[in-house]
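Whether sequence alone determines local backbone shape is best considered at the level of individual chains. For completeness, the protein is quoted in full, as a sequence line and a line of structure tokens:
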Amino acid sequence: MVATLRDSLDQRREDMFPKLTAAQIARIERLSTRRRIAAGEILFEPGHRRTHMHVVVSGALEIVRPGHVGERAITVHGPGEFTGEVDMLTGRQSLVRARAVEDTELLELEREKLRALVQTDAELSEIFMRAFILRRMGLLSSGNSNAMLLGSRHSADTLKLQEFLTRNAYPYVAVDIDSDCRVA
């Protein structure tokens, strides 16, 4: 099932990371603030509540998932691409880090203005919502998470924790202590 979902997400990469047209960017720019960031500057970190979505005007942002064994690359956003996933609308903490690959110019759109845009612009709403949902699904199916659930598949408490994490769409790695050879 996970491999099938991952294959499906790979086929939908254009939907996950669409490139906005000049006309779409112009509609976003009316509600945004322009911002320049230097190469290497971190825009947001895991655990931070993000209050802005960013559209790359020039330059590039790399999106990575930090972990205990280093960073895992997710994507690099170039001109016309935007940051965010479902947490952008729900106010949840970010699961990823965004860092400028080079000197970068962005449009910074506040969460409330993004919500208003999603409610009033059907075209952008469809693009954002599809991308946000697919990106969250990609994080969930990746098997790469800072949250690790160690427990027995026979334990009611383990099952309750798995249901809680799944219900809240929080990525985690489950390790069955009864059968996983990594647990000694």
Helices lie at 2-11, 13-16, 22-29, 87-90, 111-120, 122-141, 156-167. Residues 2-141 form a domain with the Jelly Rolls fold (CATH 2.60.120.10). The chain has two domains: 2-141, 147-184.
